Amino acid sequence: MNQKMKREEAAGGQNQITEGVIWKQLLLFFFPILFGTFFQQLYNTVDAIVVGQFVGKEALAAVGGPTGTLINLLVGFFVGLASGATVIISQFYGAQRGDKVELAIHTSVAFSLLCGLGIMAVSILGAPWALAMMGTPEDILEYAILYIRIYFLGTIPNLIYNIGSGILRAVGDSRRPLLFLITGCITNIVLDIVLVVFLSMGVAGAAAATILSQTASALFVVVVLTRTEEMYRLNFSRIRLDRPMLGRIIRIGLPAGLQSVMYSLSNVIIQSSVNSLGTDTIAAWTAYGKIDCVFWMIVNAFGISITTFVGQNYGAGKMDRVKKGIRQCLTMTVVSSVALSLLLYRFGFYIFEIFTTDAAVLEKGMEILRFLVPTFVTYVTIEIYSGALRGIGDSWLPMLLTMLGVCALRVVWIVAAVPLRRTITTVVFSYPLTWSVTSVLFIIYFHRFSRLRR
Known about the structure:
By secondary structure, the chain is mainly alpha-helical. The protein contains 17 helices and no strands. Helix 2 runs parallel beside helix 12 and helix 11 (279-315) runs antiparallel to helix 12.
């Protein structure tokens, strides 16, 4: 009993999400997630910069274009599923149910190991077929196949890091996952320089640097989880699938996983349209993807923050804090998005020059950037409202809204409009169009029909 009281007291001392000034707690959780996401994105961004400058635009197009889309499709599905574990753990942790926290952790780790094996096998065997089906140009196809096959050899460490950092965030610890990512990112930069620049290993070196760095981050997370004395401790001998708990995790996480897949599949179709416009446009789209990832880092960090905030306060029965937290998080995200849009619109060209000095690529890249960055704010409502609803376990209807408003409408636009006017602006117009429509759907559902309305 004394040991249990000590654990609960320690947990209460560390977890301030259910207490204190709401906006401060959101920001204290937001910034480590933001910086963590930044360093996670920096893995592929450094790969793109190094191969773009030292190998060529074909390698740049291969590393970040079609391969990035396929990576997001497969890994994103798991990350969506894993979000169910984060919600379950945060709710049980907020309610101080140590036995359930322990069961959820060991089930989610076992699940990540199985998923890692499956994704690795499917991606390595199916990569050439998938890249060919996307219409990947011949001059980058060989680079793309080599990069993606090496990248997916590191699937299991990648998923272990994702589930482990999700566990830590669920209990309110967003600082240590950040530190582990920073260490991994520095490792990646050093290895990129050594393997690509000095050893001339090309895209193979960039992929090897990434998986070795992700393995280091995963090891750090595992060490922390196995050495803690809190209720979220990981014990290797207890790693197993508990069917009822796995069912709960999948019930909440599957909609997010399917939503990620639908996003990625619609992006595969978009990438195929981009591929038809030539290598210069693919390289420009790749570089733009590394620039606009700053926006996605910000909104995703706010989305993760509100999911954990809502989950713990919902588990603790503090509905007033839940509602206030959603409003304040939405306001902060809107302000951040508008400020970023202004900054990128003004200084985006200088950022593009980090990736390439090719004049044709730069011209296409700025055309994309100046069209899309003013529309960022139209996406904010989707991320914050879906994150809040996921925190209370309401994930199926938000997923359906996203599938219809974003994914299905995006595919319809690409199929119907792009053949009539085959330009990059016609392709990318699918983003603000679908964001705006889906935001309206979320506003109606959230304020008229969801459980949070009550």
